[in-house]
Design a protein that fits this description.
The structure holds two protein chains of two kinds. Chain A is α/β, with parallel strands linked by helices. Chain A has two domains: about 90 residues, Translation factors (Elongation Factor Tu (Ef-tu), domain 3); about 130 residues, Nucleotide-binding domain of ferredoxin-NADP reductase (FNR) module (Rossmann fold, 3-Layer(aba) Sandwich), CATH 3.40.50.80. Chain A contains seven helices and 15 strands. In chain A, helix 3 links the parallel strand 7 and strand 8. In chain A, helix 5 runs parallel beside helix 6. The two termini of chain A are about 35 Å apart. By secondary structure, chain B is of the alpha/beta class. Chain B has one domain: TIM Barrel. In chain B, the strands form four sheets. Chain B has an eight-stranded parallel β-sheet. In chain B, strands 5-6-14-11 form a four-stranded antiparallel β-sheet, with no helix packed on it. The radius of gyration of chain B is 18 Å and the shape is globular. The chains are: A alpha/beta, B alpha/beta. Chains A and B meet through strand 13 of A and strand 5, strand 6 and helix 7 of B.
């Protein structure tokens, strides 16, 4: 059950160029959160910005959570200026978590840019529930935007890097790095990143008969299934169920349920 | 000192004057995680249509200064699923229900109202004649919205009234030249109350992509940004109609709600403020009681229309 709580910021620092990690004291939210869920953050009191900002939970601790976010606009810019010791209002945990199943022998996490945000917590949960460290692919435009590499290595994960310019790891896309790993029977892929990247990862998975779960991002007002602002088209014929809510039906979806044609038409094939 | 917060809205008794704007509170259950929603005077549910609706394609929503612009397009589960899946929860929890209805034709509004009464699906009906995000009805008298044509407002109101004995509220649009005309038309056609205001039609363009931010091109603006417009329209309408007004438009606090009450609203609805703070409507209920105590008012009804002229 979600809560709305004023949470004290216990750590807040730059985690890469334009990216920040914020730790919050939030025992009530931490007690109920699972990897893949998100919170709605009030970046500051008052009417501007008017709405909360949805953010993935990065890691879950006994007494709180951490968030990893990229400064994209005015809201995240304002949030990045809030100092340790101050409080922000946090609503969460919200949404459906990543499914984890000990029968899935080869979990592979594929992150693009800030899409890595929910994966440190997911890797920890997979390790604790299955005893297996997942493989991790981290892709970004260049080496300065690769996040969390050390965290995954510390957990015992095998990490593959890919960058657009080849400044770290393989020169190329996340989907190409995933294909190099040759996922097959027993593998399960978790993807989070730009839409075009998740589509390419989905295609690799479909070709190889591998299940893929993607965590989607959308602009949303409520985060709680009410406003209907964050929907995407799904492969569902039933009229009432064709538009699924990223917040409440997701943010994690089996990628075969997503109507990729509609998503790609909207972005002109770009992310 | 005890304060009476109970109001009577055209035959609907509400234990306090606070409800929620249709489409901002789901079917009640969603926000019960945060507070006991039965404490509200009434819950106005998301617009119901005869058949489920998928609504508009995304993007549907964008933040604006002190508000938001949306073009959801009345995505809803439809009347059948409402009655079988949503209503039992609302009844079990003792909620007073205002069912907001939307149809393509006057006859569909009539069918929805008749069915809701027959199956105990509502304590009052709110006819949505003013959604800016759907291409309404067979025609709207040469207008884009039914609520822009006083003749059509009267016609739709009469049909809903003849279909049900439940109190009928008519939700009007601020996108008109003179709000008193549709307000009077609704009253003369038998409406038991009017709800004011629906969203103001607006538009946003991304200068980089040169595309409208919303797939529907235009959408409805809500939030504190529109509150002064809403208060003024309630004040104008209250000067000409005798039926009660449910005032709404950017209410975030009890002070905001008091502006509407002083302008002439007998009840108020909290809209998109619930998205940012789910228990806003309950805070408004508590704040109205505090206001009355602070001002030595024993009955909130005494304050309706009490704005002083300077």
């Amino acid at each position: 059950m979600p809560h709305v709580v004023d949470c004290k910021i216990t750590a807040h620092q730059e985690a890469g160029r334009g990216h920040y990690r914020m730790a919050l004291r939030a025992p009530k939210i931490a007690a109920e959160a699972s990897p893949g869920q998100f919170c709605m953050i009030e970046v500051r009191p008052g009417y501007h910005p008017f709405l909360r900002r949805p953010m993935s939970i990065e890691r879950i601790f006994a007494d709180g959570i951490s968030l990893l976010y990229k400064v994209e606009g005015e809201g995240t810019r304002l949030l990045s200026t809030v100092a340790v010791g101050q409080s922000v209002s946090v609503q969460g945990p919200l949404g459906k978590p990543f499914p984890i199943n000990p029968a899935w022998e080869r979990p592979i996490l594929v992150a693009g840019g800030i899409g890595v945000a929910p994966f440190p917590g997911l890797a920890e949960a997979i390790i604790s529930k299955t005893g297996r460290a997942p493989e991790v692919v981290i892709a970004a435009r260049n080496d300065s935007l690769i996040l969390c590499e050390k965290d995954f290595k510390r957990m015992g994960c095998r990490v593959t890097l890919a960058t657009d310019d080849g400044s770290a790891g393989r020169k190329g896309f996340a989907s190409e790095a995933l294909a190099d790993l040759e996922p097959g029977p027993g593998a399960v892929v978790y993807a989070c990143g730009p839409l075009a990247m998740m589509y390419a990862v989905h295609e690799v998975c479909v070709a190889r008969g591998v299940t893929c779960y993607a965590s989607l991002e959308a602009f949303m007002a409520c985060g709680d299934g009410v406003c209907m602002g964050c929907v995407i088209e799904a492969n569902v014929e039933i009229e009432a169920e064709r538009m699924v809510r990223v917040c409440a039906d997701g943010p994690v979806f089996d990628t075969t349920i997503i109507d990729w044609t509609a998503q790609r038409a909207r972005t002109g094939g770009r992310s | 000192m005890s304060v009476n917060l109970q109001v009577n809205i055209g035959g609907l008794v509400m234990k306090n004057p606070v409800t929620v704007g249709s489409g901002t509170f789901g079917y009640g259950q969603e926000y019960n995680n945060y507070f006991d929603v039965s404490q509200l005077g009434a819950i106005t549910v998301k617009s119901l249509s005869l058949k489920p609706r998928a609504g508009n394609p995304p993007p549907r929503l964008v933040e604006t200064p002190a508000g938001m612009l949306n073009a959801i397009g009345l995505q809803n589960v439809g009347i059948d699923a409402y009655l079988s899946e949503k209503l039992p929860w609302l009844r079990k929890h003792g909620c007073t229900i205002i069912a907001n209805i939307y149809g393509h034709t006057p006859d569909e509004y009539g069918q929805l109202a008749e069915r809701l009464e027959r199956e105990g699906g509502a304590d009052a009906i709110e006819a949505n004649l003013s959604c800016p995000n759907v291409h309404n009805a067979r025609d709207a008298g040469g207008c884009k919205l039914v609520a822009q044509s006083p003749e059509r407002v009267a016609e739709y109101t009469r049909i809903v009234k003849s279909a049900t004995k439940l109190p009928v509220f008519v939700k009007l649009s601020p996108n008109v030249m003179d709000i008193t005309q549709p307000a009077l038309a609704a009253e003369e056609a038998g409406a038991d109350a009017i709800s004011l205001i629906n969203t103001l039609i607006g538009m946003g363009i991304n200068p980089e992509t040169r595309r409208s931010i919303l797939s529907n091109m235009v959408g409805g603006l809500s939030g504190p940004a529109i509150r002064p417009v809403a208060v003024k329209m309630v004040w104008e309408a209250a000067s000409v109609v005798k039926i009660p007004i449910i005032g709404m438009g950017g209410i975030c606090t009890a002070g905001d709600a008091m502006q509407f009450i002083l302008a002439g609203a007998r009840a108020v609805a909290v809209g998109c403020a619930s998205f940012r703070q789910p228990d806003t409507a309950l805070q408004v209920v508590n704040g109205l009681e505090d206001y009355c105590k602070r001002h030595g008012v024993v009955d909130i009804n005494e304050l309706v229309g009490g704005v002083l002229t300077r």
